[in-house]
Amino acid sequence: MKEKIGIASDHGGFELKEILKEELKKHSEMVDLGTHSQESVDYPQVIGSACQSLLEGKVDRLVVLCGTGIGASIIANRYNGIRAALCHDEFTAEMSRRHNNSNVLVLGGRILGKDLAIRILEKWLNTEFEGGRHEKRILMIEEISKASK
Ligand code: RB5
User: What is the mean pLDDT of the segment spanning 110-135?
Assistant: First the structure.
């Protein structure tokens, strides 16, 4: 069965989101979680709602974008169970999967060119979590995050 990958952005990431949607369709069942135009929206709302969809199991993994990726990254990482990785190159995308088991890829729509963004996305989609010694560190993140509330 094909993996279900959600994708969401604010207006700053909208243009790149539309490009990446086509790439996602080649690999997975793509779910567009908004925004649906260039009109200004608040990234905490649109990205937060996409994160809820991931936590509710409506999608298996998520790609989110804003202008820089910073705001999207900050809000996504507020949710317990979300490990969002802001990636600017293929190496960080690969390591975020292998070591951090990132379940959200964050990209800056005003930072990345189309070709690089596609390469980062492909690397992230096609890299597995290594587990092993990294597993307990992921559990630690969850424990620390729950205890800090
Ligand atoms: C929107 O103008 C911009 O602030 C947003 O896309 C993002 O870059 C925030 O971190």
Answer: 97
Q: How many CA atoms lie within 13 A of 24 on its CB side?
A: 24
Percentage of the chain modeled with pLDDT above 90: 95
Index of the ligand 1 atom closest to the CA of residue 110 = 8
Asked if residue 116 has pLDDT above 70, the reply is yes
54-69 pLDDT tens trace: 999 999 999 999 999 9
Quick check: is 99 catalytic?
yes
CA distance 101 to 129: 5
Q: Find the mean pLDDT for residues 4-33.
A: 97
71, 72, 76, 77 alpha-carbon torsion, rounded to 10°:
-50
| Residue located via tokens 């999608």 | 59
Task: Write the single-letter amino acid at 135.
Answer: E
11 tagged catalytic: no
Rounded CA-CA distance 79/15 in Å is 26
Taking the C-alpha atoms of residue 77 and residue 74, their distance in angstroms, rounded to an integer, is 5
Given the residues 66, 87, 88, 134, select the one marked as catalytic.
66
Hey, which of 41, 46, 65, 68 would you mutate to test ligand 1's pocket, going by the most ligand atoms within 8 Å of its Cβ? 68
Residue range 4-147 forms a domain whose CATH class is alpha beta
